[in-house]
């Protein structure tokens, strides 16, 4: 909440890291973490962080949709209080495997929403893919749990609702995306200094520099070869099409209260400058480091402490040249569509996201070509009814309608 006697909008204070009292470094108390999507790329890296930081962090909840074998192995190592498997047909398999470990096992989406309210959870890492992360994230916020947000679609689909709920309940949202974590870190100590511009960096993906005409025959294998990051298939395709950066623009708008005209995307092929903030005096603060998601994950989970770690260190001498380019909005139209959806507001970002999830799924099944994904998203944005002030029910309905229209296209 806003400090007394300061004439500053309350929304400003969710735009900056909110510092709490530092715990005594010698304390034996550890922070309880729920990982939603523990078998995915972010989830597995989060467990690497927790394994190294066991003096500060422990696992309370693990969840996965269908990768029961890995979920069981994770549960046996980290001994959480509770495990949730999304695919209800795998409940017996997981329950039987963990019976001797005295770990509670549940199945299904509703169970996932319920377990985030558990008393032992201090922070919920939402690492689910797509719009599926919205409901459990909202439930965790309403239960007063801090959020480590790796599921950007939560804010893309329902940014106004999510941020309003977080403000009302005094919940901290710590971004995990490397770009938003960089902005978050750059804002530390700047609580009274308004942002003039947010600068989001983008690697450019595997097709950087290509002309639009040359991408018609781009294959799935080519699109999945990201030059710098090791990520899941969905986010890697989004990076290749620049939709991922578009979703990050919308996420940045909600996280930092920044107008779309004050958000700039810069292509930075080396992925060393993770993002930056420009202030009213023209000064720019940026966060730099090697492209390793474990660093922003650890920063979010350990906040407000910067926990010591053995991650590889960046050296300027290894990168004597850092380059920056303007994005090609003609070739990568998804980025332009995301700005368009964000400026329209209402349910348009939800339509954009849902249509894109369908488009990417079809591309990964070789049912549409690379450029066809953008056509699907644009078509859904044109055909699904616009709602200026949607509630949660409207957003869920818009998501379903956009998926149907996208599938028809």
- Strand fraction equals 5-15%
Gross geometry: globular
Topology as H/E string? Answer: EHEHEHEHEHEHEHEHHHEEEHHHHH
Report the structural category.
alpha/beta
The rounded Rg comes to: 21 Å
Give the termini separation. Answer: 46 Å
Largest sheet: 7 strands, parallel
Mean pLDDT: 91
Estimated helix fraction: 40-55%
Runs in which pLDDT lies below 50 for 5 or more consecutive residues are 1-27
What strand order characterises the main sheet? 4-3-2-1-5-6-7
- The overall strand count is 11
Number of helices: 15
Short description:
The relative contact order is 0.12.
Walkthrough of the structure:
This protein is α/β, with parallel strands linked by helices. The chain is built from 15 helices and 11 strands. The strands form 2 sheets. It has a 7-stranded parallel β-sheet with strand order 4-3-2-1-5-6-7, sandwiched between helices. The longest helix is centred in the middle third of the chain and has 17 residues, at 153-169. The termini are far apart. Mean pLDDT is 91; it is low at 1-27.
């Amino acid at each position: 909440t806003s400090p007394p006697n300061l004439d500053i909008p309350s929304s400003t204070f969710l735009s900056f890291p909110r510092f709490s009292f530092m715990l005594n470094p010698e304390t034996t108390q550890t922070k309880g973490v729920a990982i939603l999507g523990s078998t995915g790329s972010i989830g597995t890296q989060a467990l690497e962080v927790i394994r190294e930081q066991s003096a500060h962090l422990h696992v309370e909840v693990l969840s996965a949709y269908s990768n029961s074998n890995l979920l069981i192995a994770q549960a046996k190592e980290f001994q959480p209080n509770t495990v949730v498997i999304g695919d209800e047909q795998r409940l017996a398999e997981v329950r039987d495997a963990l019976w001797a470990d005295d770990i509670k096992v549940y199945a299904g989406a509703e169970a996932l929403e319920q377990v985030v309210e558990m008393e032992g959870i201090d922070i919920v890492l939402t690492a689910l893919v797509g719009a599926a992360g919205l409901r459990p994230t909202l439930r965790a916020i309403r239960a007063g749990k801090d959020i480590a947000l790796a599921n950007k679609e939560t804010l893309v689909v329902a940014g106004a609702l999510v941020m309003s709920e977080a403000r009302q309940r005094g919940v901290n949202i710590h971004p995990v995306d490397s770009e938003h974590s960089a902005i978050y870190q750059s804002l530390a100590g700047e609580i009274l200094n308004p942002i003039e511009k947010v600068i989001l960096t983008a690697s450019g993906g595997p097709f950087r520099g290509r002309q639009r005409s040359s991408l018609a025959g781009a294959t799935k294998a080519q699109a999945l070869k990201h030059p710098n990051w090791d990520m899941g298939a969905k986010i890697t395709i989004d990076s290749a099409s620049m939709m991922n950066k578009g979703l990050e623009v919308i996420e940045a708008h909600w996280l930092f209260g920044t107008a779309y005209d004050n958000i700039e995307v810069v292509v930075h092929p080396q992925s060393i400058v993770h993002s930056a903030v420009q202030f009213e005096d023209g000064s720019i603060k940026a966060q730099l480091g090697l492209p390793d998601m474990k660093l922003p994950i650890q920063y979010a989970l350990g906040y407000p402490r910067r926990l010591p770690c053995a991650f590889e260190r960046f050296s300027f001498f290894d990168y004597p040249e850092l380059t920056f380019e303007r994005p090609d909005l003609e070739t990568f139209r998804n980025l332009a569509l995301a700005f368009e959806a964000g400026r329209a507001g209402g349910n348009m970002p939800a339509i954009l996201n849902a249509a894109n999830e369908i488009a990417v799924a079809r591309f990964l099944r070789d049912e549409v070509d690379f450029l066809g994904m953008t056509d699907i998203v644009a078509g859904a944005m044109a055909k699904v009814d616009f709602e200026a002030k949607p509630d949660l029910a409207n957003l869920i309905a818009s998501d379903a309608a956009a998926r149907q229209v996208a599938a028809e296209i």
